[in-house]
Amino acid sequence: MENGVIVNYQQRRHVRKRYHAEVVFVFGDRLNRGTIVDISLGGAFIITPNVNLYSAGDIITISIPFPNGQSSVKRKAQVRWLNSEGIAIEFLFTAVM
Q1: Cβ density class 40-75: b for 16+ within 10 Å, e for less
Q2: Are the C-beta atoms of residues 49 and 32 closer than 8 Å to each other?
């Protein structure tokens, strides 16, 4: 069980790592705050107090700080599922031409 949801680990494409970072993300025209508690190449779980604002399929833009705190990376992501604690997101990748 992970974050209150039964997960089939064979479906995971990327290994998740524990990670603790305060993040900001944009949904619509709203700036939101949360805490990443685990992360992988494919996505992350974010604890956020306003879970009721989101639905599966919503697109957010998130800024994730590097561990050194000197810089961050910005990515678009899709909400895959949510529970009472937060949202699980999948990073969206665009092809480079």
Answers
A1: bebbbbbebeebeebeeebebebebeeeeeeeeeeb
A2: no
Is residue 44 assigned to a domain? yes
The pTM (predicted TM-score) of the whole model is: 0.79
Token pair for residue 71? 């810089």
- Count of structural domains, the chain: 1
Q: pLDDT tens digits for 30-75?
A: 999 999 999 999 999 999 998 999 999 999 999 999 888 789 999 9
- Looking at the domain assignment, is residue 3 inside a domain? no
Q: For residue 41, tell me if it sits in a domain.
A: yes
Phi-psi bin for 26: left (phi > 0), alpha (psi -120 to 50), beta? Answer: beta
Domain enclosing residue 42, as ranges: 9-91
* Dihedral Cα 28, 82, 77, 8, nearest 10 deg: -170
